[in-house]
């Protein structure tokens, strides 16, 4: 688990300078291409799945169309507009959003080992696991729904080519990740702006043919539908919930764009375009009931169908890219917060720190997406698996928001409950509706989330056990210094840098070096990396230098959970602050653990095997901390778990 920040890190959050008009415009367009990619492609399938749940192959009554549209409109308004855009974007961790950011903020008030700490940690694990499930479903769902438009291009049945085309597009998308998205990401915003304008235009074209459809803004039709359709209304709620998938992603992107650009983009373009398109699809069904097969594509004439399929495919690829990038960012947070083992993180851009690529996550996510495509074969079948992961993630963010307002911001708990409870109850209703789909495919995200939560739990439990064991067996650094003053081992020139998890204990590598090589360098640095609950750390607060004696210096380097640790860069910063270190003449000594199972103590044996497998899959400290290979000396030690 991450270390608690030192007092000097608890300084007030520095407000960022207000962006200029040009910067605000650029950020707004950028967030349209990233934050709104997922929710922006929901018109491809949300209304279609809702009306199909009612029609059963027949035509719908006008009141049924009004009711479904009203449910969708008010779902988007209540969940996305009120909860996320107006409320949750203000509940942030120093400008960062997302369930893990809220968990990190909430854990500031909890004590490790206490029940509240464990509960918060567990909720955070579940939220992260559900986000991963959503991340696997979104690319499969979005790309399949876009490619399915080719079925309308010809009278012949060519549905058999949809799946192969979708798989090829997904393979290209995931294989491109290692190259980075810096060159193509500049087109994301403009393409999605065109997408939303086209959504709005198509909707308006059908609304003007039957303006009476605008009565769906009245919640009366939603209430009437829900009260007259019994269990069927829950099925429709589950399908209508597809219209708000992606809301959690835009909250997680808060730190990249800021609250104001996200809000401007929503109210000026995204929200009106989505609502107009949904209403337009309803107007189309009133005019042509047979369009229920695919109302989104049948809104356009035959001559515009091919351009619409191409634009839809581009939009879904962009939406998928945004989810993939968000998964990389979430994984980096989870690693820094101690929920996952270290994984290789590559930077794909020299100018943008957030442009990262995680090879293992990319491969695992690709396998998950392809598995879902092959098993479900169509977006309609996959829709059954979509809502559960998203509603679960939303419930987690609501619970975390309540705790942060109550315990971190010290707001009145009744006030916090009044703000959060209505959203939480609504999300529980949607979760109940989506749970009806468990045996139609909803079991897949639940099983995946359960497995990922279990892996994170075992990793946290195993790491916590080994740290307690290390602490019991550790030699205090001050005691070792006293012994060295008495025994005075042989000295060798140069600087030795020893990494250790505790700044107060002697590093294992230092003890092993003295035991086997019986030498001590002229200058020694005991280096501790501290992962904090803050998103990012300023350079002024990153380094703490603590001289112990003439030959030994203790150095603490702080990293936020949104940052990728770079030890050489941090040491160069420490050198500018007065630390005597020349990296060209220094060696890094790392303790390399070989973990074996001990069935008699520690974790249960089945957890031992999981933890050992996770530990072996972890990236080396050399790679993770970006230490040059030719400067590293590894000293091994065997330890049981």
List the helices and strands and how they pair.
Layout (H helix, E strand, L loop, with lengths): L20 H14 L2 H4 L5 H10 L6 H26 L11 H8 L8 H33 L14 H14 L6 H4 L2 H20 L11 H10 L1 H11 L6 H6 L1 H4 L1 H29 L7 H4 L6 H32 L9 E2 L8 E2 L1 H18 L2 H30 L4 H23 L7 H31 L3 H11 L2 E10 L8 H9 L2 E13 L7 H4 E5 L4 E8 L7 H10 L9 E11 L8 H13 L3 H4 L7 E9 L1
Parallel strand pairs: 3-4, 3-7, 4-6, 7-8
Antiparallel strand pairs: 1-2, 5-6
Query: Within the largest sheet, what's the order of strands?
Result: 5-6-4-3-7-8
Using the 3D structure, state the CATH architecture of the largest domain.
Up-down Bundle
Helix content: 55-70%
The structural domain count equals 2
CATH topology of the largest domain: Amino acid/polyamine transporter I
Tally of DSSP β-strands: 8
Low-confidence stretches: 1-16
Distance between the termini: 17 Å
The number of helices is: 26
Fourth-tier CATH superfamily name of the largest domain: Amino acid/polyamine transporter I
The structural class is alpha/beta
Explain what the structure shows.
This protein is α/β, with parallel strands linked by helices. Helices cover 60% and strands 9% of the residues. β1 (346-347) and β2 form a beta hairpin. It has 26 helices and eight strands. It has two domains: 21-339 and 348-461, Up-down Bundle (Amino acid/polyamine transporter I), CATH 1.20.1740.10; 475-640, no CATH class. It starts with 20 loop residues before the first helix and ends with a strand. α1 (21-34) crosses α14, α3 (46-55) runs antiparallel to α4 and α5 (99-106) runs parallel beside α18. The strands form two sheets. Strands 5-6-4-3-7-8 form a six-stranded mixed beta sheet, with helices on both faces. The protein has a two-stranded antiparallel ribbon with strand order 1-2. It is elongated.
